[in-house]
Each structure stands twice: as structure tokens, then as C-alpha cells.
Predict the structure.
Amino acid sequence: LLCGLADHFVPQAELPAFLAALASEAPSAVLPRHVRDAPPGVLEHHRAWIDHCYAADTVEEIVERLRACDAPAAGEAAATILGRSPTALKVTLAALRRARELGPLERVLEQEYRVSCAALSSPDLVEGIRAQVIDKDRAPRWKPGTLAEVTDADVARYFAPTGDEGLSLAASDSSQEVPW
């Protein structure tokens, strides 16, 4: 609810009765009987520093803001981020920022599919699996190895048309074409 990913909260214990009621009644009649106030979430107490730090335009700036923040969780987040693939971090931030402009969910899912397919050919995917699953040394050697070394062209490759899009959730109306 806090993140805008849900509209209502139904306690887990009430889900069987809620689902049974939905089988025979309209949602507008069922919701008032089952919806409750959501319990406070962990993120709610950290909202101010999260919003400030993650509003930055670049991954480097996000990490800088996290490190400068007094909240212990912010420092932990910075350390976690810096342990991840620099390319994947920049691609993820670009995908999130682009998703805002894509409009309907179908366009966002198409973008996610494209980015995921591009990631399958990334050397960092294989290296991450090697470091975590095969050798279990937890010491990936990313290429490029730092955020500063990841170029705009490296990121753009994940969003480039492939010639065979493979997934289209768009309506058949040509005015609904995906703008890549």
C-alpha cells in the first residue's frame, strides 16, 4: 500500500472467506467486509531518507547519499549496492526511470523482457552465477568493474532493438506501438 502496489489490505486469516465471497458477490460488496487498515510497514519509518537518497539521478549519487545518511540501514544499503554488478545497477536504474515514461504496464513488461534477454548475454550474469553458486567465493569480478567504467553505450545496449522483439503485449492498433 505504501509503495502504491496494492489498493487494499485483507489479513491473511480472512483470505479464504474473502475469496469465497468473491466467487458469488461483486468485489464492491465484498471489500468493505474484509478490508482492514494495514499494519505499519518497515519502509514507512525510513521513508524520508529512502525518498531522498533514491531520488538521485545516478547510481553513484544514490550511493553517495546513502553513505552520507545517518541511518544505519542506509549504510547497509550502500554496501549491498556496491557489491552488485555495476552494469546491472546502471541498467536497473535506467529501466526504472524509463518505466515512468512508458505508460501502460504492457509497455513496462515489454521493456523488462528486452532488458532480461540482453542480460542473458552479459558476462556479469555468468560471473555472478560463478561467484555465488559454482565457486561460492562470493567475489565476483564484474566487467566493467566499477560504476565509473560503465558507459552510456553499455547501458543503451540493454534497451536496443534486437530485430526480433519476441514479446508484444501491445494492442493491435498501430498508434500503440512501443517507441523503441
Observations:
- Residues 102 and 173 are 16 Å apart (CA to CA).
